[in-house]
Amino acid sequence: MPFLSSRWDPPLRSPRDRRDRFVNYSGAVVRAPAGWDAPADEADTAKAVIAAAAAGRRIRVVGAGHSWSPIAAPDDRAMTLDQVKGIVARGPGWVRVRAGTRVRELNQALAAAGEALPIQSSITHQSVAGAVATATHGSSLVHGNLSSLVLGARLVVGDGTTVEVAGDDPRLDAVRVHLGALGIITELTLRTEPAFRLAESIEAIPLHRVAAQVEDISASAEYVKIWWMPHTADVLVFRYERTEEETTGWPSPQLHRLVEMWVPKVVLPPVLAWHRRRPDAVPAFNRIALRQLSKKRRVGPSDLMLTGPDPFRHYETEAAVPLAAGGEAFDRTVRLIERLGVRANFILELRFGRHDRAWLSPAHDRDVVNLGACTAVTRHREPYFRAFWEEMGPLGGRPHWAKEMDHDAVELRSLYPQMDRFVALRNELDPGRVFSNRFLDRVLGE
Question: Is residue 2 within 8 Å of residue 304, measured between CB atoms?
Fold first, then answer.
């Protein structure tokens, strides 16, 4: 039975506010660009790039702004591709889509055609090109991240010309995780498969047993993730397996809309404000939240089962560590929360990623555990995240490009063996740094 349709979805958010500022997802990154470009097509995009290059200006493409890092923050001009959207062509096992299409919109169009993406990110507000740019991922050792689905791309480069990168082009592995540094992506070809349904099961495991089981858990289902609410005694393992069963276990569309739109906006803000004033209330809140997460068994379409509602505003950082180090990474994080006495009122999440070839993918050449540390308690954010990276560094943790990170080009070159190749290609496609910003200056070198 159909469950979600556009009439029930909350509106897609925009990072452009009423004062024409850029504001990222957490609200921690705010910029006032010199102006906004909103091209209607690829030709308009090229004209804007040519004009910016001739004037010696920088231009940064902004998607949904669903990032915690300042990767999309425009220091000069901003560009939105919200008008450059829709499916261009489709065939068996592939779809050609315009860059400004949101992941949710692509999912709906594919579902109507009996198709689906093999992997989903947990949030679907992002533009397709933006999600690919940062190696946005789901949780599976059978499937790679969203960037691994890219079969080809079109992009407008620094001189305003358009470059087609096909499947046999050696540059494709750079474009797959492009950071917005190589040009403006206008179209992407993505791998698809016939639509399928998944059945969800949830298992509670005592906290002290999890670290030793991480590798076994990672291979226990096609899609699997681990959630721990800090300060609680149990960890939840979510598994998703393919099924022919009918969709079941979901609330009515009206109730779904209430939960999606009003709980994060009306119910949770006063609770989080209370947590900021009284962090000692967080453990009790987390225990209640843990019980709510242990819901009944559900079955549904893959894009519904693997995604969730937009969570409340919070801070998040994430390390991709080698799969073999995942248990130790989890154990270290649990112990540092206890040691520091921080009150984290959001899940500690372990998601898994299959190795890939993309030059700047956190899963480049190795299976990984993506360990996400989150909190909405502002005063605990800095000590928590600083200690987190002190623990993840010795394990070879690679930062997620869209999450909070303070790594510089020197550190990142030691983590990404293809970094120099990526920078060389960037020098070729954008020698004038038309697409750069302060974030890229830091992580790639000026």
Answer: no
What's the CA gap between 287 and 234, in Å, rounded? Answer: 9
Beta-ladder partners of 79: 37, 61
Residue 96, H or E segment: strand 94-98
Check if the beta carbon of residue 63 is closer than 8 Å to that of residue 180.
no
Measured in whole angstroms, the distance separating CA 435 from the mean position of its chain's CA atoms is 21
- Pair of tokens at residue 172: 């494709």
Which burial class, exposed, middle or buried, applies to 220 when counting CB atoms under 10 A from its CB (0-12, 13-18, 19+)?
Answer: middle
Q: Across the chain, what does the average pLDDT equal? A: 91
* β-bridge pairing 35-37 and 77-80: parallel
For 68, how many CA atoms within 13 A lie in the half-sphere containing its CB? Answer: 21
**Higher-pLDDT residue of 298, 9:** 298
* Measured distance CA(11)–CA(193) in Å, rounded: 27
Question: Which two three-digit tokens encode residue 61?
Answer: 């493409």
Residue 424: per-residue pLDDT: 98
User: Residue 34: which of 12, 14, 56 has the closest Cα?
Assistant: 56
Model pLDDT for residues 323-346, shown as the tens digit of each residue: 999 999 999 999 999 999 988 888
With the C-alpha atoms ordered 298, 194, 151, 39, is the resulting torsion angle positive or negative? negative
3-state class of 100 per DSSP? coil
The answer to whether residues 222 and 337 touch, using CB atoms and an 8 Å cutoff, is no
- Is 66 in contact with 123 (CB distance < 8 Å)? yes
What does the block give as tokens for 45? Answer: 């995009």
> Hey, what are 253's tokens?
């569309």
Q: What six digits make up the tokens of 369?
A: 């555990």
Q: How many whole angstroms from its chain centre is CA 121?
A: 6
Please check whether residue 48 is in contact with residue 59, taking contact to mean a CB–CB distance below 8 angstroms: yes
Beta-sheet strand order (sheet of 184-191): 87-91, 94-98, 184-191, 150-156, 162-165
Amino acid identity of residue 128, one-letter, is V
Tell me the C-alpha distance between 141 and 412, whole Å.
Answer: 24
| Rounded alpha-carbon distances, angstroms, from residue 135 to 180, 228, 322, 355 | 12, 23, 16, 12
User: Does residue 231 come out as left (phi exceeding 0), alpha (psi in the -120 to 50 range) or beta?
Assistant: left
Both tokens assigned to 442: 């830091």
* 378-392 and 326-340 helices, crossing angle to 10°: 140
One-letter amino acid for residue 296 of the chain: K
The pLDDT score that the predictor gives to residue 1 is: 33
pLDDT digits (tens, 9 = 90+) for 223-275: 999 999 999 989 999 999 999 999 988 766 656 666 666 666 666 667 667 66
- Helices and strands counted in the chain (H then E): 15, 20
